[in-house]
Write a structure and sequence with these properties.
Length: about 325
């Protein structure tokens, strides 16, 4: 199966199928709703129903939301024509994230999108896809990265918040607008901790509630009503908080929290290494259990991770797609 890697996304020319294209194309698969993977304007879009819901909510005017979209059900085959059929398979990343299995010419290709193997605080469990050819991300594809489990991360989040509140300080958690932010709010509210939430995070909480997750008692951010509450905000908002006359303490929940310089970069005193992406050992296990004889590595530490796989006897190559950014790490 021929695969082309472009700055705008991944293309299967024999099937006329793009995956996570950032430019308008004829036929495109969207793996999940983070903006570095999802764009509108395609003639035909395929994705999961929850991914489409998030994309529509994130763009209030629907200028960038996919049009002519077709929802594909988990583990059900869809015939694209040209001798190609595709099947979405659940994976842990954010709610709605799906891998894509492509069958064509007797070959099975799996594109993971962003993925982890450990359970997430919110979202589906990863199902390993047996395949001949695997396209896997390597955001954290170095041995230095080893992340907390969801349970360990939740305990660290709650402990930090409780410690700050006992000292009459405001615990501030930096979270992304979709995924990490809602995970942190979910953990705190279910531990009985009052939470004020930045608008970019709060507006997507109802869509998470539709998926069965509870967020009891959270409130929208109000600078006049911060006492006794934890705050969950997007990273850029910490400068606003630092300008207020309140005592704040910042926690950074991210895979990048493994790195010491994250403390200086974010102003955080509490680094909690938990990610929506797999750590090094998780990525190796996904590759191993897939049984793939060929592996293409996209995004992040592509060449180092591909080289490690080659040392294990796997036909691996770095195929970096430059458009994939760091919204969701």
């Amino acid at each position: 199966m021929r695969i082309e890697y472009h700055p705008s996304g991944i293309y299967l020319p024999d099937s006329n199928l793009w995956m996570d294209s950032r430019e308008p194309v004829e036929v495109n698969w969207i793996s999940h709703a983070h903006s570095d993977h999802a764009r509108g304007g395609h003639q035909r879009t395929y994705s999961s129903v929850k991914t489409l819901r998030f994309l529509q909510l994130r763009d209030a005017e629907a200028q960038n939301a996919p049009q002519n979209a077709t929802v594909l059900a988990d583990r059900e085959w869809f015939d694209l024509g040209n001798g190609t059929r595709i099947q979405p398979v659940p994976c842990a990343h954010i709610i709605g994230a799906r891998q894509l299995l492509v069958e064509s010419g007797g070959e099975r290709l799996c594109y993971t999108g962003d993925i982890k193997l450990k359970a997430s605080l919110l979202g589906s469990a990863t199902e390993i896809v047996p395949c001949d050819h695997l396209i896997i991300e390597s955001t954290f594809g170095l041995p230095i990265y080893s992340f907390l489990s969801a349970q360990e991360a939740a305990s660290r989040i709650v402990d930090f918040a409780a410690k700050c509140l006992r000292k009459q300080e405001i615990p501030v958690f930096l979270g992304y607008g979709l995924g990490r932010g809602q995970e942190i709010v979910h953990v705190l509210t279910n531990a009985g901790i009052p939470v004020a939430v930045h608008g970019a995070i709060g507006k997507l909480i109802p869509a998470h509630e539709v998926s069965g997750y509870a967020f009891p008692g959270w409130e929208p951010y109000n600078p006049n009503k911060l006492s006794g509450k934890a705050l969950v905000v997007v990273p850029g908002f910490k400068e606003v908080l630092e300008g207020l006359d309140i005592a704040i303490r910042i926690a950074y929940v991210s895979g990048w929290a493994m790195l010491d310089h994250s403390r200086a970069r974010t102003g955080a005193e509490e680094l909690i290494p938990y990610s929506d992406h797999g750590d090094f050992s998780e990525l190796l296990e996904i590759v191993d259990r897939s049984g793939a004889k060929k592996v293409d590595v996209v995004h992040g530490y592509t060449e180092p991770f591909a080289n490690i796989l080659r040392q294990k006897g796997i036909d691996a190559r770095a195929a970096r797609v430059e458009s994939f950014a760091e919204e969701d790490t």
